[in-house]
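Q&A log
Question type: sequence-to-structure
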Amino acid sequence: MLRDEIRRKSSLQSGFTLMELVVTLALLGLLAMLAAPLAEMTVQRSREQALRESLREIRVAIDRYKAAADSGLIRREAGDTGYPPSLQVLVEGVANQKSPNAERMIFLRRVPRDPFAPDASLPPERTWVLRAYASAPDSPSAGADVFDVSTAADGSGLNGVPYRDW
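Response status: OK
Response body:
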C-alpha cells in the first residue's frame, strides 16, 4: 500500500508546470529576438564584402586595360582616352597590336553583378553605375568610355560610408 501511494505521487509530479513552460518560452523568445539582428548584420556584411570584391575586380581590370592602351598594346583612335568603351570589352577582350597573331587580351573572366542591384533580370554589366573619364566625380555619368564604376544602392555601409562612395 505504501508502494502504491508513492507511485501515485511520483506519477502526479512528472511533467512540467505551467510556470516552467512560460519561463522556458520567454527565454527562447528572448534568444530569438537577440539573434535576428545579428543574422541581418551577417547578411549585410557578406553583401558588402561581395560589393568590395566586385568593385576591386572591375577597377583592376579597367586599370590594366588603360595600362595596355598606354603602352601601345591596344589600338587607339585619335582622341581616345585609353579606357575601355564598355565593361563587356573587358570580358570579350581586344586584339594585342604587338602580337604577331593579334592574340586577344582578356581583362575579366566575367562582369560581376552588383550585389545590391534590385533587378535580378538585368545583365551584370547593367547593374553598375558607369562613370566616363569626362564626367565629374560628384555627378558620375556614362559616356564614350568607362573610367570607374559604382553601385546604385542607397544607404551606408556598416562603416558609415555611403555605398555610392565606395
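Response note: The chain has a mean pLDDT of 88.
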